[in-house]
Amino acid sequence: MHRNTHALTDGEFDLLIIGAGAFGAAAAREATLLGLRTALIDKGDFGGATSAECFKMVHGGIRYLQHADVPRLRASCRERTTLLRIAPHLVHPLPIAIPTYGRGRRGRAFLGAGACLYDLLTFDRNWPVRDPARRIRRTQLLSRAEILAHFPHLSAPDLSGAVVFEDGQMYNPARLVLAFVKAATSQGAVACNYVEASSLLWDGARVCGVRATDRLSGDRFDIRARLTLNAAGPWADYLQADPARFGQFERAPFSRDAYFIVERKPTSSYGLAVQGLSRDKDALLSRSNRHLFAVPWGDRTLFGVWHRHYLESPDTVGIDRDEIEQWIAELNTVYPALQLSMNEVSFANCGLVPFGDTATREELSFGKQSRLIDHRAAHGVGGLVSLVGIRFTTARVDSQRALDLLLQQWPHRLDRRRAARESESRALPGGAIEQFETFREQARREAPQGVESDTLDALLRNFGTEYRAVLEHGADERSPAVADKVPDTATLVREVLFCVDREMAVRLEDVVLRRTNLAAGKHPGSRALRSVADAMARRLGWSEQRRAEEIAATERVLARHHARSLFERHDRDPIREGSGVLAKALA
Q1: Does pTM top 0.70 for this prediction?
Q2: Closest Cα partner for 126 from 141, 138, 140?
Q3: Tell me, which fold does domain 5-50+174-251+369-425 have in CATH?
């Protein structure tokens, strides 16, 4: 992957995809499997917004039992299975325990019956996952003593036990997006980050591409394509703010989904579901309130997800201290033994997803499915379809649906069945692993001297079978030693250079927040930022001013997440606003 904006102006593409989050990246892979000449652009980095900040869950659809939506349940389960199969280094099963109390809707009989019904409806959930460790197990019923062994602080007089179901968890959502992008580029797609679609190009009533702006250099150019997929997420509506062609502009409702990370080591490998204070008003059958989750992630715990109807610009989305204090108070109310405090919070994340209409904080109408708009049918505009995704899990299948709509306007016949089979079975880059534990044991035996186990495990998870290329990258007399690490971290310097040379990391925040584990739930520290900036400056020829600007810009991004900085909102982001100083430095 090499960033080459000139390739975007090299003739006409069959398909242009705007937005390289999970849905745009998956669509690019699907398009290349169909043999379409494809371009993929994003105003930021790949997976740099909602996709990177999701709750890291790969949902198998059990929640859709409440809505009696069996087709959506089955589709989610099938997509979870596909991700477990094609990205075994990045997705793994996660058991989740729901404590039960007394009888009725809070009891084991009621909840266990629902979970067993889910097992029946997803009888083929592990076909064809070969690795036994990656298969989703059936429902388990735990006794009071068994659930207390996992969560000793759950003790309550009416606790009767727990129902355990399994879902999936992503190790690093941004790298899963990147894996889809790498799959597309390996098949000939042209992908560029930090390229913004400023406006649509027209041929009569038909979209024929976009006028684009390189946000690093300021250059403007046209990208021409026969078909265009607008997958820009919460920014998608703004590209269509043209009343003459699309009617009166009205931004569809979005939810700001948020969670936070605490420096509390998990007591169990299980996640835990507890009932919050809000209700899903559209559920046909449910317990009294919607569940919140405490989920293990490495040596930390994730708590979420909280939803808020968000009407402001997606460029200003964030979390403030008061909100986290409210969430902690809610958790301590519904789960008194937890006794969380603000000083335990290390990071907070949020992103925007489609939402239903809602009137109150307590009665929420959650988004049910991705938004898919055929603008030819809706507005008489040819060559354009919009896809605003709602669940990372369904990115692949929803992108297929969007392409199916677009390709109704394609004059040539395509082998869609073959492409669909390859999409479900072909491993993403780094994912050609039969059994992950066997793969890990072999890697440990072959690891170069000095590469510690935590460093190696992170490499295996982030890069899969490509980890060897990372360790061997730039192996000459001028390169850092293979075991040299970024100060105060477990990340190798060679890993940083690999991300720059082979994965289109062009800004400091790309490496720190998305390509590596440097900012995985924490601030990596000033020494680490300076060290990575020095390595990138030497590789990319940055001036001292550019290096300083990159560090400052990354600190601002981290400040929007890092607990010590949550006392103050940091809405100004120079790469989004195009501030003069940084724009000149980047150029």
Answers
A1: yes
A2: 138
A3: FAD/NAD(P)-binding domain (3.50.50)
